[in-house]
Amino acid sequence: MIYRPRTERQSHYFRARVADQFDAVIHIDETRALEPLERTARWTEGEAPETYPVGL
Known about the structure:
Structural class: mainly alpha
Number of helices: 3
Low-confidence stretches: none
Radius of gyration: 21 Å
Largest sheet: none
Distance between the termini: 26 Å
């Protein structure tokens, strides 16, 4: 893809009417992280390091 600043607005943004496109819209103000159904040893160790998986 080539970035062209002169035509960015025309190619990436457009007018939209949500009510014309959808029957319903859901807005969720607060969320929380998902948790696995089964907690394995890997889950209880905490978060994976930023460089996970190591060695790639």
